[in-house]
Amino acid sequence: MFEIATALLIGFIILLLLLFLHARKQNPDYFFLVGKVVLITGASSGIGRACSFKFYRHGCKVVLCSRNKAELIKVKESLELQTTALGVKAITPEVHILDVSDISHVEKNVQNIIEASGGKIDIVINNAGVSYRGHVTSTQLEVFQKVMDVNFLGQVAVTKAVLPYMVKSNGGHIIGIGSVQGKIAVPHRAPYTASKHACQAFYDSLRSEVAHNNIHVSVVNPGYVKTNLSHSALTDDGSSYGKLDETTAKGLHPDVIAKFVVHSVILKKKEIMVAPFHHKLVVWIRLICPNLYFWLMKKRTNV
Ligand SMILES: NC(=O)C1=CN([C@@H]2O[C@H](COP(=O)(O)OP(=O)(O)OC[C@H]3O[C@@H](n4cnc5c(N)ncnc54)[C@H](OP(=O)(O)O)[C@@H]3O)[C@@H](O)[C@H]2O)C=CC1
Ligand SMILES: CCCCCCCCCCCCCCCC(=O)OCC(=O)COP(=O)(O)O
């Protein structure tokens, strides 16, 4: 009887210890971010803009990049009206024009941006992206090329530009903003979902290559988010779709995604999916029961 009670007590103490260690691991240390240099692509709108606010408020130096300088300046001005969290000193944001689809120049352009911001880079948020609405049969090949350039090769080129700096300083964090569509393909999104699947594979491959350099790689996969994404989506002939889809309008607030991006850095998460339960279920169905997934997707197809 005495031995059983002792064994139960020891078991209970071990359980408490494990719970304590787990809670410590999950407890975000926001001070970790203070003074870090964070480069954000697509910072003029939506998720990128929301990330700029979160990292700025945590005391980071945010380097805001996109093609639209006027919009970036507006983001910078709004940031400067903010107070920082944790009572830390704010660092003036920087604004730089960067077109991630200008593939042959992106590496050099990003290196110039890093040098102009002090020659140091701690965190990169590869967020710039464009979506698509159309049918494969009627879509010009140039549209596939454009979506892949912005969403995939753009992220690869920015990553390649920052890696030498991170290797040299023996640390860094690269975050790819993917999508649920990097896990499952849906109809009428062929180039978009292909680009997001490519990114997922790229980061999964890169993660193990750079781990020994103390460089962390996270992929954040959102479901629908209320941004301009459907508006600027490309169509079959390369023109913009120009509409706010109902799915987008009813999507999550970009701040929610930005909060998970911050957590992915602080908690060094390899992958986070920020989506409703039924989206996560379809990802599992694709793995476990592919024929059910094929049937579900056929039902979603407008022909
Ligand atoms: N909204 C959603 O439902 C979801 C979005 N995502 C992903 O989130 C990311 C951000 O999109 P989101 O905020 O929703 O959409 P927005 O359209 O609001 O923002 C897209 C951003 O990307 C920038 N961008 C587009 N093309 C280029 C380019 N060639 N070079 C540089 N920047 C570019 C735009 O800046 P500018 O025009 O100033 O250059 C803009 O800042 C994308 O990767 C998207 O795939 C993932 C899942 C769901
Ligand atoms: C047996 C039970 C099955 C439950 C079935 C539910 C069926 C729902 C299908 C859901 C498909 C998931 C789509 C997810 C799409 C998504 O969230 O993508 C995020 C984006 O990147 C959005 O970009 P877009 O340009 O497509 O707006």
UniProtKB/TrEMBL annotation:
It comes from the Eukaryota. Keywords: Oxidoreductase. The keyword Oxidoreductase applies. Residues 36-228 form the Ketoreductase domain. It holds the Pfam family adh_short. SMART domains: PKS_KR (SM00822). Transmembrane segments: none annotated. PANTHER family: DEHYDROGENASE/REDUCTASE SDR FAMILY MEMBER 7B, DEHYDROGENASE_REDUCTASE SDR FAMILY MEMBER 7B. NCBIfam families: PRK06181.1 (NF004825). This is Dehydrogenase/reductase SDR family member 7B. It comes from Clavelina lepadiformis (Light-bulb sea squirt). The lineage of its organism: Eukaryota, Metazoa, Chordata, Tunicata, Ascidiacea.
